[in-house]
Amino acid sequence: MDLFTKKTEKAGGRETSGLPRHIAIILDGNGRWAKKRGLPRTAGHMAGSETFRRIATYCKNIGVDYLTVYAFSTENWKRPEDEVGAIMKLLDKYLREAVATMARDRIRMRVFGDISCLSPELQRLVAETEEISSHYEGFQANICINYGGRDEIINAARRYAEDYAAGRAGALTEESFGAYLYSAGIPDPDLLIRPGGEQRISNFLLWQCAYSEFYFTDVLWPDFTGAELDKAIAEYRRRDRRFGAVKNP
Ligand code: IPE
Ligand code: IPE
Ligand code: MG
């Protein structure tokens, strides 16, 4: 019995009927949104960044604790140079504005991903937003930039191996390994949303989504609204999360 209780707790057990504590979103469909309007893809990314601002505030207001968004993947470098450049510029603009407003809006921010190959200015902005965030508590938005689930796991394995060899780490367990991931200290996502019509994970949170509920919608990210989020949450509430156990043995 003890063993059973421990296992279900370990599985991350958030209530099945409540509000998801952590929502993850793959911000997809910006390019198609722009194309439909005869605009350059970068206009879609611009519209998408405004949607992120709105949805982050919405999540905070309804009482979600964490929102993690996939903004730029380790594979997105394959895109044309001008598109990558435009996305980096938007991230720069977003972080600059965040630095100015996050204390007022009480939105904590973290960046997940290998930021070492971003521009020195972007790296400085990331460090600054994280520093400001460390001074208060409450809703937290995590932005994944140059993020890949496989890259995160390899990175964590490498750092664990180094610590182990130096006598700084103990036995390898799911918990101890989790501390080496970008998401250290943050509960796994309860709900993963992918707008834009594709039904795949595209290298997002491979470790953390082990028991997340998935919700797909054809709505393109720039068109995503609080009402769409409500729909996803309503669907989440209808799900039966079992974490491998049986309900009434
Ligand atoms: C998501 O929108 C943003 C990034 C991946 C940076 P897309 O740019 O992938 O939009 P679609 O999928 O081409 O419509
Ligand atoms: C996933 O979207 C990555 C981000 C939203 C940052 P993509 O548009 O890159 O994914 P694929 O290529 O359709 O799988
Ligand atoms: Mg896409």
The poorly predicted ranges are 1-17
Proportion in helices: 40-55%
* Beta-strand segment tally: 6
Please trace the helix and strand order, writing H or E for each element. HEHHEHEHEHHEEH
State the name of the first-level CATH class: Alpha Beta
What's the end-to-end separation, in Å? 12 Å
Structural class: alpha/beta
Largest sheet: number of strands, sense, barrel closure: 6 strands, parallel
Radius of gyration: 19 Å
- Proper CATH architecture: 3-Layer(aba) Sandwich
Q: What is the count of helical runs?
A: 8
CATH topology: Undecaprenyl pyrophosphate synthetase
Average pLDDT works out at: 93
Going across the biggest sheet, name each strand in turn. 3-4-2-1-5-6
CATH homologous superfamily title = Decaprenyl diphosphate synthase-like
Describe it for me?
By secondary structure, the chain is α/β, with parallel strands linked by helices. It has a single domain (19-148, 188-237), classed as Decaprenyl diphosphate synthase-like (Undecaprenyl pyrophosphate synthetase, 3-Layer(aba) Sandwich). 45% of the residues lie in helices and 14% in strands. It has a six-stranded parallel β-sheet, sandwiched between helices. β3 (108-112), α5 and β4 (140-147) form a beta-alpha-beta unit. α2 crosses α3, α3 packs parallel to α4 (81-105) and α4 (81-105) packs parallel to α5. The chain starts with a helix and ends in an 11-residue tail after the last helix. The structure holds 3-methylbut-3-enyl trihydrogen diphosphate (2 copies) and magnesium ion.
Quick structural gist:
The protein has 249 residues and is an alpha/beta fold.
